[in-house]
Amino acid sequence: MTQTTRTARKPRGEYAKSETTRQAILDAALEVFAESGFRAGSLREIAQRVGMSEAGLLHHFPRKSALLLAVLDHRDEAARAVVDFDLTDGAATLQGLVELAAINASMPGVVELFCTLSAEATSPAHPAHEYFQKRYIYVRSRLTDAFELLRVAGRLVEGVDPARAAVTTTALMDGLQVQWLLDPASTDMSRDLAAHFRLLVRGFDLQALEDVLDLRAGEAP
Predict the structure, then answer these.
(1) CATH class as words, domain 12-68
(2) What is the pTM of this model?
(3) Angle value at C-alpha 169, between 111 and 205, nearest 5 degrees
């Protein structure tokens, strides 16, 4: 190791402090964007909430668009803590989505931000266009994997195609969010998503298991 390399490295404590500051900025940016929207939310307001100058914020995120993408990734990390796409039990992954829908219902500002950005990002010129393209590809792919695991286990309802189920589930989740934002009384996102999965997966949860047992009991001689 050369002396130049040795002196160029920051002490471990500085890295930890920098990461803590970065996480605080992301949390504040998510709050501001959720309250005011991406375009109206100001970097100055975000910096004030963190207790730093706007110039200090720009040291971590040189552009507002870079901050937006980091906020979206930050939000995805929180979602992945609830939904584990690497599980070998596809039903458990779907249960995670139901749980995530319940959590989202406690954060209307964040849901509104996501819905607004995903619609605006259909324009190739939007800074989050590529992010949402990749995100939907990822979600559909991992949902397809979860439904395929259920098909192999013999739990997917006959005639249900894993790939198509992934597409319709993704569309349903987004659609439920829009309906809920327009009229919170119109839907319970978590409950209605679970009802959708019960139509696709045998014994998806306790309610679905009871329905299957009742059906079998009715078919018995």
Answers:
(1) mainly alpha
(2) 0.79
(3) 100
